[in-house]
Design brief:
The complex is a heterodimer of chains A (783) and B (294). Chain A has 783 residues and is an alpha+beta fold. Chain A contains 18 helices and 30 strands. Chain B has 3 domains: 7-53, 2-Layer Sandwich (Uridine Diphospho-n-acetylenolpyruvylglucosamine Reductase, domain 2); 58-173, Uridine Diphospho-n-acetylenolpyruvylglucosamine Reductase, domain 3, CATH 3.30.465.10; 179-289, Enolase-like, domain 1 (2-Layer Sandwich). Chain B is built from 12 helices and 14 strands. Classes of the chains: A alpha+beta (783), B alpha+beta (294). The A-B interface holds A 121-122, 125-126, 129, 283-285, 643-646, 684, 686, 688, 696-697, 699, 701-702, 704, 706-707, 709-710, 766-768, 771-772, 775 and B 1-5, 39, 43-44, 186, 188-193, 195, 262-265, 267-268, 271-272, 275.
């Protein structure tokens, strides 16, 4: 191709459909005879179920069925443990997973107790009001530390305690670092829960066709293939009898890769019972309870340093809120442990976590997935150490960066993909320098800040670094097919939730096959169109599926060249692919379209040679040996209204390095969306549970999402340090924007209130909380 | 989040609506803009037997000037109030307040009467009605009466209206010459309910001293909270920074007794009340002085 499409800011292939409202979402699926499903959910966070009285629910006109746990018989099973415990020595691990409907006890508010199927959602909800559950309320486990005290109520009675897991990972010898230190700082950090609040809630349509013996499920899942395999197993069907379609999805962010949600298990089962299609669309209130959440952790962290700011070691002991069930194993605490180390040399590290069951909604990865906490602890420790040592916060980071010649860099502990945590490549200082330049760091510190502070303003600046482990295995696959029209179709197993896969994958393929990206039609998330795969998570789509695309497209290119070479009686190296045609280099008269070749490769008559595959098609798989480590620097200038404590972000800079960039426009979108979510997490979004485990703000009226007015224009730039681990050199970018924002807010606020010695050690914040922290700091200063 | 079943009625006149209201009493709900009622019904927190839709009653949609008063029909959309020139001239405080109410999309649908009658303690309009000494015209099948705004609000989401009564009109007196006004609120995000808000109306005498003052808060109590002690402190004083600061401090510490919620604790609310009290009194006094000087 004369113009390379890989790396270009091409507009997204999927946008016209999305913007015009012509894309299929789960709730757009309407089937003849379809019934609607509603769930009776517990108002209490912790209670024993004495009895369930269905009242007149079953007899209510329009109601097709009412089920409780007892009706499920053998089908009632706790969900599978999705991720086995990592190979960490002396790990204590007590898995407990979610159930389809609560049987003897409810363990979090919103846990489903009964399900109603009716002619409409209205009638189904009317019938919910008929059902009476006799609960014996139990004291709730809410606070992480209280959960571990003897005498605490128990989320899972059979365990005898509330410990989901306990594990320690070490590198070097922390005791030695502590002994050798000039300065040891100790702090406690809190990071509280939020919810992903995707624009589209979850939804499922399940339809059993008795004549074809086929079950079709439209599901807002990030992992359609795993859902198919699991449901087939549970229902005793062949995998070929189950088709799962993950159509367009209005945001995944991690909670949509949780499996199996009770609703998935129940709709698939109930459509078989009733022989009619069923629909359940999660409403926003349900989403606050029934969709998984993340982020509750408490860290007691200690850092040992030399007087010159060199970090000698870190000891971190933390509690992790698993919620009522922990289907995802230890992915989150392991991710926190690993990400804490960041782009810095930390010779000695001791990290010890306890994952704790609580009577709160289930916790599974949500964009960032444990990384926010690690970055927050590390960056805060560096800020506090810099303050104590009289070093500026930039220098202390620079001093401790891993240097470019140290890669691959091993941190020795086990990462969430169970390999040793090893950074493939990185170059951190240029990104820092670029961020400082873009934010105008020196000018702000020397001129703007003093001038504005003299005028009674409060303004602060912050700069933080982070790394992100991305693109983990096991594998993904892709099938690339040249069609008779000359257009190219591509299928993969990963689902898409707004990432721009229809474009970025097309760009990867287009260059190899010699067509425009707009002529590459990508299909994702339909198990009938691609059989194998894992799913969209852990910033892995571009890395894992992208490289599978590349491999398949390269193979198709080879087929095209071989066939054209034979036809044109030319050596393959003398051919070129231009705009959907092959020709002898520089001789357009010889050109033949790849569509014609595709037709010839699938002849109607005659005999093809033995060993020949029909068509111009290839299927390839890619599995990375380990994850690729992306990195970045965020910088911000923040203005605080000293009277109301409202904040205004004056400038926000991201310099990001995710290796080779496929499409900078899509990448910027990913980063900006992530930052918006990070801003929400830092200053607006917090789930408030009371001492009974009741959620006090289960609506978007009280759970505040950042709006366009709260999110600044983001200045972004990209460094490209390719990953040596995969042919494309790409690293993941899906979560990067969201990860360091809490740390950035904390540092900026400390900077704005440095005269009173403010030290922010918690996220999320709010104007009210900032008022309290400033009031306390002022009181300490005056005491 | 689907409402329970209800019967739906679309009267064309106030008389028809009142008859329905008498018929259903507590079991009936009046639907104005629906910005509060509909979500409440979707959560099934409200399950009225009958919904009486006022959107087809033409006689409830009007803004007019009458004997130096501003008269608004209860169903007048908030966006209409915001953009109306008569409102701006006769009740500039009301005009200044309107853009603070939720979002433009909500104001397109929300009505002045709906908000006043709903009596949400965090709503702007009840506080402004009290600050302006608005009069509420309330009717039932058998009765019609005017109720002063200050007497209209009797508690949390509670008004002086009986179940068979309906708010049909509100009258705002002409802003007096020599008086100044101001409105301000602090919300976590634009368009959200305020954590604290304040409206002030101040009149100065010929010597520039404060002749009358009213400072009304919202979102710090069960309804609009009138800071009488603060106003008393200010009357007779020259409106300098010190006097205003003292009045605002008194308002924050004496006149209000806020409770906390997930967005703002009592201490922060008091703090904001002091800040906002000072801001609105200052601006109201400046405007009053400016008006005097003309």
């Amino acid at each position: 191709m004369s113009t390379r499409q890989f790396g270009q800011p091409i507009k997204r292939n999927e946008d016209p459909r999305l913007l015009a409202g012509r894309a299929l979402f789960t709730d757009d699926v309407h089937l003849a005879g379809m019934l609607h499903v509603a769930f009776l959910r517990s108002d209490l966070a912790h209670a024993r179920i004495r009895s369930i009285d269905l009242g007149g629910a079953k007899e209510r006109p329009g109601v097709a069925a009412v089920y409780t746990a007892d009706d499920l018989g053998e089908y009632w099973q706790p969900g599978p443990l999705l991720v086995p415990p990592p190979p960490v020595e002396q790990l204590e691990f007590h898995p407990r997973t979610q159930v389809p409907l609560a049987k003897d006890k409810v363990r979090h508010a919103g846990e489903a107790v009964a399900v109603v199927v009716a002619e409409s959602r209205y009638l189904a909800e009317d019938a919910l009001d008929d059902i009476f559950v006799d609960y014996e309320p139990l004291d709730a486990v809410v606070d992480l530390e209280d959960a571990l005290k003897s005498g605490s109520p128990l989320v899972h009675d059979d365990l005898g305690h509330n410990i989901n897991a306990r594990g320690t990972q070490t590198k070097g010898d922390w005791a030695q670092a502590e002994d050798a230190a000039d300065l040891v700082i100790r702090r406690r950090f809190h990071y509280d829960r939020g919810t992903a609040a995707a624009m589209e809630n979850r939804g499922i349509v399940a339809s059993w066709d008795d004549k074809s013996q086929q079950l079709t499920i439209w599901d807002t899942t990030q992992a359609p293939i795993a859902i198919r395999n699991g449901l087939a197993g549970m229902l005793g069907l062949s995998e070929h009898q189950v088709r799962v379609i993950a159509p367009f999805i209005g945001g995944g962010f991690g909670p949509k890769i949780m499996m199996f949600y009770p609703e998935e298990v129940l709709l698939a089962w109930a459509t078989l019972q009733l022989g009619r299609p069923l629909k359940w669309i999660e409403d926003r209130e349900e989403n606050f309870y029934a969709t998984t959440q993340e982020r509750g952790q408490v860290h007691d962290a200690t850092m040992a340093l030399k007087n010159d700011g060199t970090v000698l070691g870190i000891k971190d002991v933390f509690l992790h809120d698993a919620g009522a069930y922990a289907p995802y194993g230890l992915t989150l605490p392991i991710s926190s442990q690993c990400t804490l180390l960041g782009p810095y040399v930390v010779p000695d590290y001791h990290s010890e976590f306890t994952s704790v069951f609580t009577n709160k909604p289930i916790v599974t990865p949500y964009r960032g997935a444990g990384r926010q906490h690690g970055v927050f602890v590390m960056e805060r420790l560096l800020d506090i150490a810099a303050e104590e040592l009289g070093i500026d916060p930039i220098s202390i980071r620079r001093k401790n960066y891993i240097q470019p010649d140290q890669f691959p860099y091993s941190n020795e502990i086990i990462f969430q993909d169970f390999t040793q945590l090893t950074y493939d490549s990185g170059n951190y200082e240029p990104a820092l320098d670029r961020a400082l330049e873009l934010i105008g760091y020196q000018e702000f510190i020397r001129e703007d800040q003093p001038r504005r502070e003299a005028g009674g303003k409060r303004v602060g600046i912050s700069v933080v670094s982070y790394i992100e482990g991305t693109g983990i295995g096991p594998y993904e696959g892709a099938r690339v097919t040249v069609e008779a029209s000359g257009k190219v179709s591509v299928a993969t197993g990963v689902g898409t939730q707004g990432q721009g896969h229809y474009t970025s994958f097309a760009q990867v393929v287009a260059d190899q096959v010699g067509v425009a990206a707009s002529d590459v039609h990508v299909v994702t998330g339909d198990t009938d169109l691609f059989y194998w795969g894992a799913g969209t998570f852990a910033s892995r789509g571009a890395v894992v599926a992208g490289n599978a695309m590349h491999a398949a497209a390269t193979k198709v290119r080879d087929k095209i060249l071989k066939m054209a070479g034979e036809k044109l009686e030319a050596a393959e190296e003398d051919l070129e692919l231009i705009e959907g045609r092959v020709q002898v280099k520089g001789v357009p008269q010889t050109s033949i379209s790849i569509g014609e070749l595709a037709v010839e490769a699938n002849p109607m008559r005659g005999a093809v040679r033995p060993g020949t595959e029909p068509g111009l098609e290839a299927t390839e798989y890619y599995g990375p040996e380990r994850g690729a480590t992306a990195s970045g620097v965020h910088a911000m200038i923040l203005r605080v209204d000293p009277e109301t404590y409202l904040l205004e972000i004056e400038k926000y800079v991201v310099v990001h390095d995710c290796g080779t960039v496929i499409n900078p426009l899509i990448l910027d979108g990913q980063i900006q969306g992530g930052v918006a979510q990070g801003i929400g997490n830092a200053f607006y979004e917090q789930l408030h549970f009371d001492e009974n485990g009741a959620l006090l703000n289960a609506s978007l009226m009280d759970y505040l999402l950042p709006t366009a007015a709260d999110v600044p224009n983001i200045v972004s730039d990209h460094m490209e340090t390719p990953s040596p681990l995969n042919p494309l050199g790409v690293k993941g970018a899906g979560e990067a924007g969201a990860i360091p924002v809490g740390a950035l807010f904390a540092q900026a606020l400390d900077n704005a209130f440095r005269d009173i010695g403010l030290e922010v050690r918690e996220i999320p914040l709010s104007p009210n909380r900032l008022f309290e922290l400033v009031t306390e700091a002022s009181a300490r200063g005056n005491a | 989040m689907k409402p329970a079943a209800f019967s739906y009625h679309a009267p064309r006149t106030v008389d028809e609506a009142l008859a329905l209201l008498r018929n259903y009493g507590d079991e009936g709900k009046l639907l104005a803009g629906g910005q509060s009622l509909v979500p409440t019904m979707n959560f099934r927190l409200a399950q009225p037997t009958a919904l009486i839709d006022l959107n087809g009653i033409d006689e409830l949609f009007f803004i007019r000037e009458d004997n130096d008063e501003l008269r608004c029909g209860a169903m007048t959309r908030q966006r209409e109030v915001e953009r109306n020139g008569v409102v701006k001239r006769i009740a500039p405080l009301l005009h200044e307040t309107m853009p603070h109410i939720a979002h433009a999309q909500i104001r397109n649908r929300g009505t002045i009467g709906g908000s006043l009658a709903h009596a949400d303690p965090a709503a702007e309009l009840p506080a402004v009605a009290v600050a302006l000494d608005a009069q509420m015209y309330v009717r039932s099948v058998t009765d019609a009466r005017w109720v002063a705004a200050r007497d209209f609000y009797v508690g949390l989401f509670a008004t002086a209206m009986l179940p068979e009564e309906m708010l049909v009109e509100v009258a705002f007196p002409q802003s007096r010459s020599g008086s100044g006004w101001a409105f301000e609120e602090v919300a976590r995000q634009h368009g959200n309910y305020a954590m604290c808000g304040a409206a002030a109306v101040v009149g100065l005498d010929g010597k520039g001293a404060v002749e009358n003052a009213r400072l009304v808060y919202f979102s710090v109590g069960e309804g609009p909270v009138v800071a009488d002690q603060a106003a008393a402190l200010l009357v007779g004083e020259q409106p300098n920074a010190e006097a205003i600061r003292a009045a605002a401090d008194t308002a924050a510490s004496q006149d209000i007794d806020p409770v906390g919620d997930i967005h703002a604790g009592p201490a922060y609310r008091r703090h904001l009340a002091g800040v906002l009290g000072e801001r609105v009194l200052t601006r109201a006094c400046e405007r009053a002085a400016g008006a005097e000087g003309q």
